[in-house]
Amino acid sequence: MRTTNSPAAPVSMNKKNDLLPDLKIEKRSIKSLKRSKHAVRRSSNRQKKKCIASIERFGFCQVVLITDNDEIVDGHALVEAALALGLTVVPCICIAHLGARRPNICLCYS
């Protein structure tokens, strides 16, 4: 996967409220990922089917958000769809820079 560095983008300072942190997409083994310890919505069969159809048609265009110890924060349905398609790895972004705020990230995606 390709990333570009825009010359107009501010340089990441790795500070608490960094609006443009340095994020890296990494392929992780599905077997290494752990379900969230926090309450998450269960994916409906309809949502799983939509994820499967999307991945089949376009490939993976979204990433799974994980903690530094491979706990899934967001993207459970994507992981389930990948398993149904027989994939062994998924694209992930580790959001360790958020610290204790990471469980709340799903609120902005809902």
Low-confidence stretches: 6-13
The geometry reads as: globular
Q: What's the gyration radius in Å?
A: 15 Å
Number of strands: 4
Please state how the strands of the largest beta sheet are arranged side by side.
1-4-2-3
Question: Which class of secondary structure composition applies to the elements?
Answer: alpha+beta
Mind describing the biggest β-sheet?
4 strands, mixed
Helix-strand pattern: EHEEHEH
Our count of helices gives: 3
Helix content: 10-25%
Going by CATH, the homologous superfamily would be: Conserved hypothetical protein from pyrococcus furiosus pfu- 392566-001, ParB domain
CATH architecture: Alpha-Beta Complex
Q: How many distinct folded domains?
A: 1
CA-CA gap between termini: 26 Å
Q: Strand portion, in percent?
A: 15-25%
Mean pLDDT across residues: 80
CATH level 3 topology: Conserved hypothetical protein from pyrococcus furiosus pfu- 392566-001, ParB domain
Top CATH class: Alpha Beta
Which features characterize this protein?
110 residues; alpha+beta; Conserved hypothetical protein from pyrococcus furiosus pfu- 392566-001, ParB domain; four-stranded mixed sheet
